[in-house]
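Standup notes, structure subgroup. Blocker cleared on the FE2/S2 (inorganic) cluster input:
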Amino acid sequence: MSTRREFLKSMSAALISAGTPFLFSDCAGALASFRTQVRDGVLTVPKSEIEPPENSTGILIVHASSMPGPIVVRRHADVGIVALLSICTHRGCEVRPMPHSLQCPCHGSEYDVEGNVIEGPAPKPLTRFPVQETADSIIIRV
Ligand code: FES
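Run returned:
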């Protein structure tokens, strides 16, 4: 029998593959999350947290108490792993990861998967952190 969390994760994955942005945003809370701490300016995340079967969406929300907001970590076929601070550069609302972008619920700004502004009023890109991959970890320099 599936747990509620497993059900919600599989539902998010199904919605992403179906390209259903509206429903996806309603299920954003079901995305996988990982809590850690900044140590020596670095966040370390086990690679399995963003890869199947642990993570069927490929999106991970990383929380660290010393950061100004959650970090959206996602692997893209074209650009590799991208880590973005989820704080909108307009007025600081928390953006939501969508299948092919990130959207701000407050005033409608939209960012591409690398954090560049697609639609304003956001004045500049999301903060992007350098990422390094090791055999089993993702190292995010914050
Ligand atoms: S705070 Fe994001 S668009 Fe205004």
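Discussed briefly. Residues 88, 90-93, 104, 106-109, 121-122 surround FE2/S2 (inorganic) cluster (CB under 6 Å).
Next: hand off to the docking folks.
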